[in-house]
Amino acid sequence: MAARCISAAAFFGLFMLFLLPVSRNIINIGNGIGMAVSALMVLILLFWNRFSIFVGRCWEKPLGKLLVGVVGGVAAVSVVTAAVISVFMIKAANDRPKNENTTLVVLGCQVRDGAPSLMLSRRLKAAYDYLSGHESVKVVVSGGKGEDESISEAQCMRDWLVGNGIAPERIYMEDKSVNTEENLSFSKKIIDENGLPADITIVTDGFHQLRADILAEKTGIESHNISARTAWYLLPTYWVREWFGVLYYKLF
Predict the structure, then answer these.
(1) Is the pTM of this model over 0.90?
(2) Which of 51, 152, 200, 233 fits a 20 to 30 Å CA distance from 118?
């Protein structure tokens, strides 16, 4: 009983962690699924006896036995799939460039009132740290202008990097893309046109690196990665969302 109560408390804490981003108007499949599964586990653990009786009764009937088997099988496959994807996500997040013969591509993210959002500012900081230590490396800042943005994401990133001491001639802007696939394909065109190193290092959040790698491969890009740190209260939501994104691009 004590173990179940502790587990229920842990899942309730996880539910609250998935709920936190909602206060910043971040609602997606990641925190939706996370809250749903966490709440379900809390209810199962708190009402374990009733749950066990219900499953036992279902198991006594052929149709119920089939239903329990299907639900259990789907749950098991989902857990294994999530674990496998997570391992590859961690590996991709730590695949740093081997030398300076590379071109950085910083993937855009939301701009708020002309300034980088929290997530974008952390990507810029990761790019800045690398550029500061590798002065021969050039960078493509990639991201168009959304309807709720006053300037393009690329312009915002360029302004931030220049304002923090990165020479303007090291920065190339790609300001037409609206998603990750376009970020990479449009940036590749700029890299090819300007004779920059074809080996690309993608700068984005760690959770996003695997999907970016998948899209880079489809675009014919050899890529390494520099990962920005994601705010702790956003990481679970975006990590779960990424499971579905990776599955989608792998299947379709």
Answers:
(1) yes
(2) 200
For the chain (length 252 residues), average pLDDT per consecutive 10?
A: 91 97 94 97 95 93 93 96 98 94 96 94 98 96 93 97 97 96 96 96 97 92 95 96 94 82
Q: Which two tokens mark 61?
A: 């009937």
